[in-house]
Design brief:
- The protein is 42% helix and 20% strand.
- By secondary structure, it is of the alpha/beta class.
- A five-stranded parallel β-sheet has the order 2-1-3-4-5, with helices on both faces.
- It is elongated, with a radius of gyration of 20 Å.
Length: 192
């Protein structure tokens, strides 16, 4: 059985981010653990760099599957997939209207996992401070791919309030970055 060559590119951060990139890497590593005939190259991009060049480089080096993680890589994946029709591409969290046949979009119903988080946060806040309950939701950047998380969380809080006849306040803030935990901590501390 020939070995399938796979490249996975991070979305401007490391694969040890305890978040999005890391979970994607761990998923692919789980396949490797089953002994499938795979050769995998993990490539960390920096910032919101031009993604087209490393994506094309993997296609030119006969990688049969190139996986790009993150909303910001979607357009570059679309462009490169059109130039390399024999290579398969996956865009994790990409948003495109006209998708070439060799590009698969993996998008998730993040609002559905954020909803119970909002509901449970509201219940906890109400339990801890019934006189003035409040919760907060912090997004990395204020971009369209983050909005479903925020909306789902807020909907969970709203549903708690509606079904329990309560008025738990819900605050929202953005860090302005996906890769600045120190700033995220400052935003969280301000909200607390």
């Amino acid at each position: 059985t020939p070995t399938l060559r796979i490249a996975m590119l991070s979305d401007g951060g490391t694969f040890n981010d305890h978040s999005f990139n890391q979970s994607c890497r761990e998923g692919l590593e789980a396949l490797l653990a089953h002994g499938l005939p795979l050769y995998v190259q993990f490539y960390e991009t920096t910032g919101e760099a031009p993604f087209g060049k490393p994506l094309a480089a993997f296609a030119e080096r006969n990688y049969r599957l190139v996986v790009g993680i993150g909303y910001f890589m979607g357009k570059a994946l679309d462009d490169v997939a059109r130039r390399y029709p024999r290579t398969r591409f996956i865009s994790v969290d990409g948003v495109l209207d006209d998708i070439p046949p060799n590009l698969l979009l993996l998008t998730f119903r993040v609002d559905q996992c954020a909803f119970p988080a909002g509901f449970l946060a509201a219940a906890w806040a109400d339990l801890r401070d019934p006189e003035d309950p409040a919760v907060a939701c912090i997004g990395g950047k204020d971009v369209s791919s983050v909005e479903p998380f925020i909306a789902g969380f807020r909907a969970g809080v709203d549903y708690y309030n509606e079904t329990r006849a309560r008025t738990v306040a819900c605050h929202t803030a953005y860090v302005g970055s996906f890769t600045d935990p120190a700033r995220g901590r400052r935003v969280a501390e301000r909200l607390l």
